[in-house]
């Protein structure tokens, strides 16, 4: 017996793509409904508002990012961070949707937001960083600032890759990507190990 796909999951997948492309303010429920081939009321049935749909998209992203950290096994916290960020950088370049979504979420949120779905992700990474030789005597804020720079560098390259490839051509872009991969490796190592 085949099971029918959950409409809510399908709407979330479509909304994730749209929010990563256009940000919160660029997406309407009508657009998500059009992508799904349903009425706006069908999407509202599951999420009640655009804000709730967006919150669920971000919650799902946060759960996925936290699961990736949890799945990263290594003997020490420093090696775990290195392994996590190496995989994160590779994944972000190969599939930049999550990187774009994180950047959009950070840009679209304001100080009055009632929910910060990505905070547990950043807190978990900060806790892990504070266990490494490089950050164990640093303040939580210093470790978070370092993480933010590292995440930002990876995300910036991932989301700008199509533009760079278009500007300089595939051959030059591939060389830039190779050089950046080496630079990211050094940056990630330097973040975790003094």
TrEMBL record:
Residues 28-47 bind DNA. This is HTH-type transcriptional regulator RutR. It comes from Falsiruegeria litorea R37. Pfam families: TetR_N. PROSITE patterns: HTH_TETR_2 (PS50977). Gene3D superfamilies: Tetracycline Repressor, domain 2 (1.10.357.10). Keywords: DNA-binding, Transcription, Transcription regulation. The gene is rutR_2. Residues 5-65 form the HTH tetR-type domain. GO terms for molecular function: DNA-binding transcription factor activity; transcription cis-regulatory region binding.
């Amino acid at each position: 017996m085949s099971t029918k796909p959950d409409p809510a999951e399908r709407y979330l997948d479509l909304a994730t793509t749209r929010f990563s492309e256009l940000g919160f303010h660029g997406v309407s429920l009508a657009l998500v409904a059009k992508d799904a081939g349903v009425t706006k009321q069908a999407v509202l049935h599951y999420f009640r508002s655009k804000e709730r749909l967006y919150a669920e998209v971000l919650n799902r992203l946060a759960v996925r990012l936290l699961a990736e950290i949890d799945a990263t096994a290594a003997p020490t916290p420093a090696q775990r961070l290195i392994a996590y960020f190496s995989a994160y950088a590779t994944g972000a370049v190969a599939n930049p949707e999550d990187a774009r979504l994180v950047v959009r979420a950070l840009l679209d949120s304001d100080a009055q937001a009632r929910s910060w779905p990505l905070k547990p992700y950043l807190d978990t990474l900060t806790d892990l960083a504070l266990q490494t030789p490089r950050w164990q005597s640093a303040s939580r804020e210093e470790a978070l600032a370092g993480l933010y720079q590292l995440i930002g560098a990876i995300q910036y390259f991932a989301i700008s890759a199509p533009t760079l490839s278009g500007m300089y051509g595939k051959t030059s872009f591939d060389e830039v990507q190779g050089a950046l991969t080496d630079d990211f490796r050094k940056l990630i190592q330097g973040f975790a190990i003094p």
